[in-house]
Amino acid sequence: MQRRRYRPATMLAGLLTLALSALLMPPASAASTAAAGASHTSAAPLAELTVVSERVAFGLQRPIALTGLPDGRMLIAEKNGTVRAYHPDTGLAAAPVLDLTARIDTSDNERGLLGITPAPNFARTGLLYVAYTSLPAGTLTLARVPLGAPDRLQVLLTQEHAEYGNHNGGQVAFGRDGYLYWSLGDGGNANDPFKSGQNLGTLLGKILRIDVSRTCGSKPYCVPSDNPFVRTPGARPEIWVYGLRNPWKFSIDPVDNSLWIGDVGQGLIEEINHIRPAQRGANLGWSCKEGTPVFDQTQCRPGVRLTDPVVEYEHYLTENCSIIGGLVYRGSVTPEARGTYIASDYCSTRAFAVRPKSTGGYESAEIGTFPTQPTAFGADVNGELYVLSDLPGWLSKVRFERVPPAAGTGVTNR
Questions:
Q1: How much is the pLDDT for 34?
Q2: Are 367 and 356 in contact (CB under 8 A)?
Q3: Quick one: residue 173, left, alpha or beta (phi over 0 = left, psi -120 to 50 = alpha)?
Q4: What's residue 405's pLDDT?
Q5: 93 near 395, Cβ under 8 Å?
């Protein structure tokens, strides 16, 4: 789903590396450090973990987003605008529980219904928040809608996106702070044609943070007063972090409210960023940089601090093509894996595991593979992981097994 134009690379292909700058990141708060340490007390070394996937549903039509509900169901967004429900006891429901196809532009491989998440008070309100490309011209749209009532959909925020069909972002998620986060791509095509990544005057190439529990003036939402650019002239106050190319999938760790972002690269580097709340306003570099290498020197401004990825990997002349950002495992079935961030690649299906080290920096490893064409990860009400497969239309449950350490994983830890 996320294939893009490539450009040549000169670095060793396929190597998963930890960015040196990760060691220079601001330290986590005492609370988040304590929580992280507690979650890792029984953690197994990453090299001793492997993922195992069990297919639990099939017959989905290009499934691209997944979220859990308090009642144990999983909601699955299909690209055409339908939402299906799966429950481990009853399987995949035949009929959609929500149909938004009349509103959604699916004219390009990357357009469609892109993100879905329940409201924090879903058990009482039945409200969902969705992100999609709307008819007639692919406008990036954030809306809320009661489950099963598409006629009551309310649009909250939009961003024009007519020129190109790719780089739409589209993930939506609530943080532990109660605010809604939404990712948007840089506007599409290649080479950041609108120079959106470094431009605080547009929502393109950003992750936003808004308060959807209130209204402010004519807006059906408010901007939190501690958003980093509220008082910056010319900047959109909704922006939380910027300098992104296509943050197709991100997630929020409920333990410390930090963002884990899978940002799709152009032709050389796929990257994973980890942004803690104290790093609000972080500039992740695009299109000055693609990962850690400089991409466009004209977009590199003197005196501007860039936050490099914590993990990056190359894909030129390899089977890798697009990072599929995942989430931190917080389930109970495999306590040895708790606190580990899991991601993959759409083409190679490799399972990437990343974990902050108590001494600073990060460790990472490849711990197996997922089923073909992974597009999204999600967690059920118990924190157990699931993964979607695009064209086969599969939903698979993920578990971990502990294995003897393997030599030569192709991973560098720093």
A1: 37
A2: no
A3: beta
A4: 63
A5: no
pLDDT, residue 281, reads 98
Contact 164, 185 (CB under 8 A): no
Tokens describing residue 196 = 């959106």
Round to whole Å and give the CA distance between 56 and 394. 8
- Give CA 252 to chain center in angstroms: 9
3-class secondary structure, 395: strand
pLDDT at position 42, please? 73
Residue 249, classed as helix, strand or coil, is: strand
Beta partners for residue 34, in sequence order = none
Encode burial over 334-344: b for 16+ CB neighbours within 10 A, e otherwise: bebbbbbbbbb
Position 321 scores a pLDDT of: 95
Helix (H) or strand (E) holding 79: none
Residue stretches of the chain with pLDDT short of 50: 1-41, 408-414
pLDDT at 59: 97
Output the pLDDT for position 189.
96
In this structure, what DSSP letter does residue 36 have? H
Domains, the chain: 16-406 (2.120.10.30)
Residue 399 host element (H or E): strand 394-402
Please list the residues that pair with 75 across neighbouring strands.
67, 85
Cα–Cα distance measured from residue 272 to residue 167, given in angstroms and rounded to the nearest whole number: 17
Q: Determine if residue 120 is left, alpha or beta; phi over 0 gives left, psi from -120 to 50 gives alpha, anything else beta.
A: alpha
